[in-house]
């Protein structure tokens, strides 16, 4: 089927060639007349936009690539809008990573206090995008990639009536890595993950006519070298005891001391590495002979995000009725979480709506952690929307990676001081 317009907010991101590749590879199911890339950085937009145009021209795709600095123009008449913004840029990310570390806490861009700071900066911006979208194209779908993806999606849901789903490349990556490990085609595996964005566990891995979860755990346990690859960074006894497969971000909880040590010893934060990678990618993109997504982009963590996004859009447009793992309003799917909380779980995708599939109760071994992180997320959303210092403090106090009031207050004050230009809601 054909759709007339996809708007990409943050279209100057070095990730955009991924999306274009997704549009190219799904072209037999989904024809997109126009793709508008919007960005506040004209230089990035020009470089990335020119590469996107060369990519579609190379394969003869009729999709028109338009560039815009206007939010209103980008949202007007869009069927789908993808948000992939980083408020405060890479410099903001580096502060999110370094400030907690200075207080002896995990410095990570989505998990822990770093993700909290990113959320405070991002919520007002994404809220504005959602408000404008509901005025310009009230029937459009907003697909949010902006991190922390689940938390931001919930903030949009609370403050706007638009149709929004949050997406992450985590679930699709888990499927591909597990398939590779087991020597099976990824399309033949169904993995049910339950929980929140960057805080979820696979409790079913269905394939070959059975639940392969314990075989997968057994296989991982037999390959201790996998611990260092970053994708299954968990001790075999942990996996054997849980009988769940945690997403990689759970290493910040299960391996907290080791991770903290590693982050403290690193000469650069991940944000500093990404800044360098991004600089090199943009130089590469500026080469007018380049007509495809360069291999170097695979060094970024968001690999396969375009596959997740474009397959989702294609499923909605073509009313495929298949299952995607999405960040959506719980509506009773996980009995241990509030009805209005956004959770990351498998959903049935239809043209008119996405329907979360029932999970029931979370296993006792993980229930408390999920509930605590969801409380932190909800307090963070309220703090950001209300500009409330006291709720911001409560949010950090509720976070399992923040051990005391003293540290919560010092880290909060440091964020508010260092990022005040982006945190004006706190006065
Ligand atoms: C993972 C996460 C994404 C995150 C990315 C960071 O893939 O699922 O949410 O944005 O890693 O990758 P980076 O290359 O920016 O460190």
From TrEMBL:
Keyword presence, Transmembrane helix: no
Site residues by UniProt (Increases basicity of active site Tyr): 109
CDD domains: GH4_P_beta_glucosidase (cd05296)
Keyword Coiled coil listed: no
Residue positions binding substrate: 93, 147
Entry binding sites for Mn(2+): 168, 198
Segment forming the signal sequence: none
Highest taxon above the source species: Bacteria
Needed cofactors: NAD(+)
Cofactor binding note of this UniProt entry: Binds 1 NAD(+) per subunit.
The name this protein goes by in its record: 6-phospho-beta-glucosidase
Organism: Candidatus Hakubella thermalkaliphila
């Amino acid at each position: 089927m054909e759709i007339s317009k996809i708007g990409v907010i943050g279209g100057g991101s070095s990730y955009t060639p991924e999306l274009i590749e997704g549009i190219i590879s799904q072209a037999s199911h989904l024809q997109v007349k126009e793709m508008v890339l919007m960005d506040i950085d004209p230089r990035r937009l020009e470089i990335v936009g020119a590469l996107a145009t060369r990519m579609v021209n190379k394969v003869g795709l009729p999709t028109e690539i338009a560039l815009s600095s206007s939010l209103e123009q980008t949202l007007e008449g869009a069927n789908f809008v993808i948000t992939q913004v980083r408020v405060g840029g890479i410099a903001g990310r580096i502060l999110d990573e370094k400030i907690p570390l200075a207080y002896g806490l995990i410095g990570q861009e989505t998990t822990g206090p770093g993700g909290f700071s990113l959320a405070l900066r991002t919520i007002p911006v994404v809220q504005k995008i959602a408000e404008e979208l509901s005025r310009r194209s009230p029937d459009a779908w907003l697909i949010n990639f902006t991190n922390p993806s689940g938390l931001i999606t919930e903030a949009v849901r609370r403050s706007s009536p638009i149709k929004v789903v949050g997406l992450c490349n985590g679930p699709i990556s888990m499927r591909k890595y597990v398939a590779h490990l087991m020597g099976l085609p990824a399309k033949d595996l169904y993995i049910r993950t339950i929980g929140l964005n960057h805080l979820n566990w696979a409790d079913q891995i269905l394939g070959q006519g059975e639940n392969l979860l314990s075989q997968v755990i057994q296989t991982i346990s037999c390959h201790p070298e996998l611990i260092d690859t970053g994708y299954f960074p968990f001790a075999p006894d942990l996996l054997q005891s849980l009988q769940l497969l945690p997403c990689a971000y759970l290493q910040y909880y299960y391996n907290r001391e080791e991770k903290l040590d590693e982050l403290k010893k690193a000469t650069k934060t991940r944000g500093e590495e990404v800044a360098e990678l991004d600089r090199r990618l943009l130089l590469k993109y500026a080469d007018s002979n380049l007509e495809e997504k360069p291999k170097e982009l695979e060094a970024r963590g968001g690999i396969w995000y375009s596959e997740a996004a474009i397959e989702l859009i294609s499923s909605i447009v073509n009313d495929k009725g298949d299952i995607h793992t999405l960040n959506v309003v719980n509506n009773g799917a996980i009995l241990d979480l509030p009805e209005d909380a956004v959770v990351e779980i498998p959903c049935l995708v239809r043209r008119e709506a996405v329907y979360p599939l029932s999970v029931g109760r979370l296993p006792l071994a993980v229930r408390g952690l999920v509930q605590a992180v969801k409380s932190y997320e909800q307090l963070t959303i309220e703090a950001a929307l209300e500009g409330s210092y006291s709720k911001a403090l409560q949010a950090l106090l509720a976070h399992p990676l923040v051990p005391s009031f003293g540290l919560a207050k010092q880290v909060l004050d440091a964020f508010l001081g260092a990022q005040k230009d982006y945190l004006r809601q706190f006065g």
